[in-house]
Write a sequence for this structure.
């Protein structure tokens, strides 16, 4: 099954190699890995999606913590997290396309349905930007292909995840737990396992955000 | 740093390195110089409290640091130059990693200005050692050296210990910075976050464990290396005695509990004694203390201890339920966990009497075919040699003052079976990685750690030749190390597997050796050949009391096997005993 880990790591040279090397050592395939800045200075945030047996999560998390550069690890259950991916698509769209002069307006329409944005127009192509769950992105790609459009280039960021509700790492710390106790608390304490109440959830424009995981 | 410059000396990076090592308590460093580490070697003379041991191959340096750490419990330190020097360290670092040995390895690196340019003797040693170190560092500035070294010592020793490598560029060694040992102290070690808060008597896991222990009629303690790492020898014994629980040991757990203790069963696993493995298979509760259910001790996992509930006390959360699913995990330092657990367990040693009697009875029946019972039939068996080395030490009252350092192979298993270890850290052996060539250099490290003890190398003719060059180091350092080469003319363990599983196709396992005694003599080391049992003890005494290094070449049976043995894939109780038609047994009474 797919596991999603959010890891806060020290922003130091070689940290990515350490994390990647760990997964290679555990013989686990990384499905996607994104790295970027976090809300804390000198701390990067990684979202790592990997394919592993269900019971492996504990060991992966414990092993990630064994890296000296790891600050915090959270395995996010998809029901509790917002998972997003950014995708750029370059679609061939010129007078020579099957739909000819109409092609552009049809691509605009399709993009609209999927809430993708047009970010670049060239004589022979259109670039679309889309944020969403992996399944939404794949939906757009499929519709475009089935409608006879050729996708010239695809660039996807891989998934990023964030737990819903207030319990970010910073809040946990603000509540007065140190890192160790906080993590332990999250493992056991019901407060942190509970689904957030509905007023904590931000309006979500993608209701089917988790459908891809159900399929798998 | 600027405000401290006035009050603290300006030192070169090289000097800072030595000063920090000295501050951390290092007195012995095993190493080999080269271009990229010359500034460090140049500064050595200013630090007279540190003794540098020049090795003959950098693999020797890392094994020596490892042997030093295993024998003493202190951090072992080795160093090498960049490129080939650094890569030569790798086997020893990996050996230390697999057995959780605290070690700090220092490597010189090309100047930071040319890093990444494939400069002469440049190699990405932090990349290479990433999967075989607990952590590693590349240091490019003199002002970072002290803090990095201090942090490395902390990482090497805290939690589950392990090796740490520090790669220091030549320009960092040459540049100057203010040195302030105190200010370079690392922040308090971060405990593994999944350790949670300390276990108390009220923790549900402790209560569950207590209930399981009191409900069990046939418990067995699985004693691992972690007992010594944690310093929990006394707690384990108190626990076992209070509850009357027998103790089975892993290879690296030998010595944690005196072998002669009535509750000590001996070694478990692939070449464990059969009553030990039977006890595990029949147990209703396993208490795993600082061990990790390695495949060499569990046999086929599907059939491992089928009736037993399992309680695992372990400092590394990533070991929990890795190989064997456990019912209760007490994650933490073994000593502290046992101290919490002990008061809550009722003293009911008598309740397990029937269980202990059962085990005792099975000892009686299965031990009969033991090679120990063979009369002296003119053949020399490795098991006899090792047992006689032990008896000789006992007779001299030195058994607790003896450190045996083994290599890897049959002799290693015979050592574990026939040398009865009474003291912690009295056996130094490469378990996890099983590194041939380990014994001789590791023994040098052990001798530096324990100069007052009798240090024995027990090595096969194959493994001994892998690092035999260190004989010269022994002489240069004037070390009184005793060396027993168990010479069977084969890569014995390989030959045994070929006999058992490859139709006796002895492919590449016969090995030619030099005359080891002459080899020793060429180094200025005295030696003797022994090929009959009657001369074993007197030669061992001669070696032990000679006051200098001494090598004995024991010419033993060529095609002897280690038994019992569990074939790969077989369950722990499916042990293969010494075969009845074994020609070696021809003269035995029961053949
Ligand atoms: C560096 C290394 N290479 C290969 C092996 C595989 N191996 C394990 S035991 C063994 C044979 C050891 O032979 P020897 O040193 O003569 O000891 P014996 O088994 O005869 O006691 C070999 C080749 C190993 N453990 N380590």
């Amino acid at each position: 099954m797919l596991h999603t880990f959010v890891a806060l790591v020290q922003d130091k040279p070689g940290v990515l190699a350490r994390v990647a090397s760990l997964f290679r050592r555990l013989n686990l395939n990384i499905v996607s890995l994104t790295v970027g800045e976090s809300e804390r200075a000198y701390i990067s945030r990684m979202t790592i999606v990997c394919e592993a047996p269900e019971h492996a999560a504990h060991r992966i998390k414990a092993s990630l913590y064994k890296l000296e550069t790891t600050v915090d690890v959270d395995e996010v259950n998809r029901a509790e997290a917002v998972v997003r991916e950014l995708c750029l698509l370059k679609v061939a769209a010129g007078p020579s396309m099957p739909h000819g002069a109409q092609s552009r307006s049809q691509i605009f329409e399709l993009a609209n349905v999927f809430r993708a944005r047009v970010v670049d127009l060239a004589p022979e192509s259109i670039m679309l930007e889309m944020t969403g769950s992996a399944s939404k992105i794949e939906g757009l790609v499929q519709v475009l292909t089935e409608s006879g459009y050729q996708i010239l280039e695809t660039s996807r960021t891989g998934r990023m995840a964030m737990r819903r509700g207030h319990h970010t790492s910073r809040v946990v710390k603000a509540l007065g737990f140190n890192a160790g106790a906080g993590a332990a608390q999250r493992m056991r304490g019901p407060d942190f396992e509970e689904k957030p109440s509905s007023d904590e959830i931000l309006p979500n424009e993608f209701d089917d955000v988790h459908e891809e995981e159900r399929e798998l | 740093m600027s405000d401290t410059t006035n009050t603290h000396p300006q030192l070169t990076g090289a000097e800072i390195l030595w000063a920090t090592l000295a501050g951390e308590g290092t007195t012995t460093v095993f190493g080999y110089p080269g271009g990229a580490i010359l500034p460090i070697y140049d500064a050595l003379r200013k630090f007279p409290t540190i003794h540098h041991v020049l090795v003959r191959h950098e693999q020797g340096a890392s094994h020596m640091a490892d042997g030093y750490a295993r024998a003493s419990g202190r951090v072992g330190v080795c160093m090498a130059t960049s490129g080939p020097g650094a890569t030569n360290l790798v086997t020893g670092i990996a050996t230390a990693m697999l057995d959780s040995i605290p070690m700090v390895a220092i490597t010189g690196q090309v100047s930071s200005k040319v890093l990444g340019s494939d400069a002469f003797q440049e190699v990405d040693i932090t990349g290479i050692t990433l999967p075989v170190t607990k952590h590693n560092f590349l240091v490019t500035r003199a002002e970072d050296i002290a803090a990095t070294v201090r942090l490395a010592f902390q990482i090497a020793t805290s939690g589950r210990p392990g090796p740490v490598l520090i790669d220091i560029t030549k320009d960092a060694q040459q540049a100057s910075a203010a040195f302030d040992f105190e200010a370079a102290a690392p922040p308090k070690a971060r405990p593994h976050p999944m350790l949670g808060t300390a276990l108390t008597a009220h923790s549900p896991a402790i209560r569950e464990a207590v209930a399981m222990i009191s409900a069990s009629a046939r418990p067995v303690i699985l004693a691992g290396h972690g007992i010594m790492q944690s310093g929990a020898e006394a707690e384990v014994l108190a626990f076992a005695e209070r509850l009357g629980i027998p103790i089975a040991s892993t290879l690296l757990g030998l010595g944690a509990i005196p072998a002669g203790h009535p509750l000590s069963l001996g070694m478990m696993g692939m070449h464990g004694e059969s009553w030990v493995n039977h006890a595990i298979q029949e147990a209703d509760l396993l208490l795993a203390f600082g061990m990790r259910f390695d495949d060499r001790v569990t046999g086929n996992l599907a059939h491992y201890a089928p009736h037993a509930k399992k309680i695992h006390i372990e400092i590394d959360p990533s070991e929990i339920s890795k190989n064997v699913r456990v019912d209760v995990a007490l994650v933490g330092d073994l000593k502290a966990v046992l101290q919490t657990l002990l008061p809550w367990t009722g003293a009911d040693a008598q309740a397990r009497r029937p269980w202990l009697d059962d085990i005792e009875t099975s000892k009686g029946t299965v031990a009969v075919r033991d090679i120990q019972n063979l009369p002296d039939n003119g053949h020399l068996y490795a098991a006899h040699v090792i047992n006689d080395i032990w008896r000789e030490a006992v007779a001299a009252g030195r058994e607790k003052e003896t450190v045996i350092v083994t290599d890897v192979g049959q002799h290693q298993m015979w050592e574990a079976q026939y040398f009865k270890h009474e003291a912690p850290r009295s056996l130094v052996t490469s378990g996890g990685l099983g590194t041939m060539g380990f014994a001789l250099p590791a023994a040098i490290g052990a001798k530096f750690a324990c100069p007052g003890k009798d240090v024995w190398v027990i090595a096969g003719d194959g493994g001994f030749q892998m690092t035999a060059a260190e004989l010269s180091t022994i002489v240069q350092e004037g070390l009184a190390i005793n060396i027993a080469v168990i010479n069977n003319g084969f890569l014995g363990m390989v030959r045994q597997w070929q006999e058992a599983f490859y139709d006796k196709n002895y492919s590449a396992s016969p090995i030619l050796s030099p005359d080891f005694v002459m080899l020793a003599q060429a180094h200025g080391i005295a030696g003797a050949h022994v090929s009959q049992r009657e001369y074993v003890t007197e030669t061992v005494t001669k070696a032990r009391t000679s006051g200098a290094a001494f090598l004995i070449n024991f010419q033993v049976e060529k095609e002897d096997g280690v038994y019992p043995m569990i074939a790969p894939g077989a369950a722990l109780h499916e042990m293969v005993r010494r075969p009845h038609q074994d020609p070696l047994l021809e003269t035995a009474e029961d053949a």
